[in-house]
Design goal:
By secondary structure, this protein is an alpha+beta fold. It has helices spanning 6-10, 16-19, 33-41, 65-69, 73-77, 107-115, 154-170, 200-206, 243-257, 293-306, and strands at 47-48, 51-61, 83-90, 97-103, 128-132, 135-140, 143-149, 195-197, 222-228, 233-239, 266-268, 274-280, 283-290.
Length: 315
């Protein structure tokens, strides 16, 4: 295997310690593999600015992904990752470039894996892109793409953007972002902190809450977490498939995390930080690390006002 694995550069995988003790992957229908392989291969360019495709295009599904990136494949499996293809490209006298194209089943999960550890974002290529030395990643529709150079040079950077542009053009349609993003108030929102996910192992990566799944997250739940300036308070919005599970999750959270809270589900915990929680139909809203009681209440109130924009949509 080459020195570069996209997941090792783009995703920080401390979460894998938690994953090892639980079955926390999203179940995906993997039928019609042959047609899917063909579709993905058709999105890969044969050449770019002197780089040409080398060897056989490699294919990895939800099980064989571990042959390519070992335990790090679990991060993708926390979303509806279906399959990926890998193409290596060479240009004499220049570092090798590797192109990885992931089918995440839905545009929402393509966005989710893109946001997992992003540090920056550009509006193109695709529907959002991030670049760091030697690595360019973007998402569009249900696809997530990473283009990596063994060593970045001005030439490899140009080639990476050229390859990305060609793939972008071949993905004819865009896809929607997760509807649950609408629950995030825009005032003081740190846009780069927004993370979309399904499972509690993802949540613990972004904000360590507990060893156990106290919010009863599963592959059918949708969640978003973000930070707000100036105090870096967190807001979490979760949508459950039904009100019964939402009520059970709220009771579990109260008992495990804020047993001292009063009937308003508001509590001051360690470091003098405030926590506020709100159950609203199939949604749970959480404000964490708020500096004052009023700021926690205000964040929850602002998020609740936005729920009407998504309350009638199917999860």
């Amino acid at each position: 295997m080459s020195k570069r694995l996209c997941i090792l550069q783009y995703l920080i995988i401390g979460v894998l310690t938690t994953i090892a003790s639980a079955d926390v992957t999203v179940v995906v229908d993997s039928t019609n593999k042959d047609s899917m392989i063909t579709d993905l291969r058709q999105l890969l360019p044969d050449e770019s600015l002197g780089w040409t495709a080398q060897g056989e295009i490699k294919f990895y599904d939800r099980e064989s992904i571990f042959d390519y990136m070992n335990g790090a494949g679990e991060v993708y499996r926390m979303y509806a990752y279906r399959e990926m293809v890998v193409q290596r490209m060479a240009n004499e006298g220049q570092p090798e470039i590797t192109v990885e194209l992931f089918d995440m089943s839905t545009s929402e999960d393509a966005f989710g894996i893109f946001t997992h550890s992003r540090l920056s974002e550009d509006t193109s290529p695709g529907q959002g892109a991030t670049h760091q030395p030697g690595l360019l990643c973007f998402w569009k529709n249900r696809y997530f793409v990473c283009i990596t150079a063994m060593r970045e040079t001005p030439e490899t950077k140009k080639a990476a953007y050229d390859i990305a542009g060609k793939i972008d053009k071949l993905i004819l349609n865009t896809g929607p972002k997760p509807a649950i993003l609408e629950c995030l108030p825009l005032d003081r929102l740190d846009q780069l902190s927004v993370r979309y996910f399904h499972l509690y192992t993802s949540l613990n990566y972004h904000y360590y809450l507990a060893d156990q799944n106290i919010l009863k997250l599963n592959e059918k739940t949708e969640a978003v977490i973000a930070q707000y300036e100036p105090h870096r308070s967190f807001l979490i919005c979760i949508r459950y498939p039904d009100e019964k599970l939402a009520k059970e999750a709220m009771s579990s959270f109260r008992e495990a995390y804020i047993p001292e809270a009063d009937s308003s589900d508001l509590a001051q915990i360690e470091d003098d930080k405030w926590v506020a929680a709100k159950l609203e139909s199939t949604f749970i809203l959480l404000a964490l690390d708020a500096p004052t009681q009023d700021s926690a209440i205000s964040l929850i109130r602002a998020a609740k006002e936005r729920l009407a924009d998504i309350d009638n949509e199917e999860p």
